[in-house]
What we know:
This protein is an alpha+beta fold. It has 10 helices and 12 strands.
Amino acid sequence: MAELVIQNEEQLFAAIRQLQNGHLSFEGLSIKFDGWPNYRVTLRGDQYNGGLPIRKMMPLLKVQSAIDKYYSEQKYGVEKQLTLADKQKTSVIVHFESGSTVAVSRVFDTLNQIAPELITKMNGMQAVLTILGLAALYGCGWSIKTYLNYKAKIQEQELKAKGIEQELLLKIELSKQETERAKIIAEAASNNPLLQKQIDNMNSINDKLLKALQPGEQLVQDGQVLIDGTTAKELTRSSTKAEPTESRLDGRFLTITVDSGSVRDGFRMTIRNVETNEEIIVKVPAGTLSEEQIKTLQDGEWGKRPLNMQINVRKSGNRIISATLIEAGLS
Length: 331
C-alpha cells in the first residue's frame, strides 16, 4: 500500500496535481498528515495574553462540530450523535500561545484518525480529494482571506441592490500562488458535493469568528491585520442570507456511489445528471425503494445504466443544499 505523507501546503498541492494528472494512483493509497494542517487563529486586543474569553470559543467549537458532522455523514450516511469511540477519533485539540492570543487546533491529528476509515468507505478519487481539500481549508492562510473578500463583495452587491454606492470595506490582496490554489480547491468542489459542503462549513466557522470580534480587537495572520472588530461588525450586519427554496428536479441519473451503511431512515447515494454531468448527494428515505431495488443499488448494478428519478431539492441561490429521492425506475 502506498503512503502519502503531507507535512505542509506545498506537499498537499503537489499531491493534488499528481492525482488530477493521473501521476498518483488513489487505489490503495493511505494518507498521513505529519504536524500539519493546523487551524490557527490569532487575536489581538487589550484583554488577550495567551487566554481566550468564553465568548470567543464559539468558532473553535464550530471547528469540532464541522468535523463531527463530516465524519458522521460519511460513516453513517446522516448527521447523528457520535459514539464515544467516534468522538475519540474526531476530537480536535486546541493549544494557546502567549502574547496575542493564538489558538491552534491540531486538525492533522483528527484527520489521521478519520481518513483511513473514510477513504475505504467513499469513492476513491472523490474521497482522497475531499480529505486533501479539507486539509487545505483548515491549514492554508488564503482560506480566511478568500472568505473575507467574499463577504465584502456580497455586502457591496447588497448595497448596490438598494441603490447605495459604497466602496469595498476591505480587499485583502492574495499572492498569485494563493489565488491559484484557492481556485484549484473551488474547481475541485464544483463537481464534488462533499467538498463543497466542507467549504460551506468553513465559511460558517469564519462567520462565527467575525461575529465574535469586538471593536478594538483584530484578527491577525503572519503579522498582517486582516480585519478589525469594527469592520467585522459592518460586514456581518450588512450581509443577509437568502432563504432556501424548495423545488423538484426530475431527470435521468447515473448512480455513482451508494452508501453501504444503512441507517434507520434509509441511506444515501451520489448520482450524476446525464444531461448536465452535475453530481448530487441524494437521501433515500426508508420505503422509497423496494428491498430488491435497494440490493441492486448496493451491488452497484444501476451504475451501468441511467435511472429516471424524481427528486425534491432545497436550494440556496442556484446551489442544491439537500436532495431527497421520492421515486426511481429503470429506463
